[in-house]
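Data deposition worksheet. Section B asks for the primary sequence of the deposited chain exactly as it was used as input, without tags or linkers unless they were present during the calculation. Section C holds the resulting structure in token form. Section D is free text for depositor observations; keep each observation to a single sentence. Incomplete worksheets are returned to the depositor.
Section A, Depositor: J.P.
Section B:
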Amino acid sequence: MATTLGLKCKLYRGPAGSQANIEMKNVSNVTLNLEKGEADITTRKANGWRMSAATLKEASIEFEMLYDPDDADFAAVFNAFLNDTPLAIFVTDGAGSGLDCDCVVMNVSQDQSLEEAVKANVTLKPTDIGGDGSRAPQWVDASSPESGSGSGSGAA
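Section C:
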């Protein structure tokens, strides 16, 4: 298995409801968080052990951007935050696999460290503003011939 360097990975944005196709270059330290909720299914037959079942999947995307109001990527993210406008997002490993969904901008924090460039710390979370589920989160697997078929989307 080959090692993938973070600098090879990509983050794309676009208008909500469509595929993200604009590569965001003004980003660093991107983190894709994938988690599941948990239901307690412990019974007496568990011999004193707590038992769990996985429930709903959760995702968040966190990254840093240089604070530059003239940069198109920064402006798109900041305006989406101010106007409660979702963005189409695709966070990929650089080879085409990754999370594809519409997201809301939940956080834009400004880091004003004395010896660093001013940065914005951004958090995105999946949304369904349109209400029809057409851009529900899905894992795109570039190595699969059925890529984008909703694998991992939780759809029944």
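Section D:
The two ends are 32 Å apart (CA to CA).
The helical segments are 72-83.
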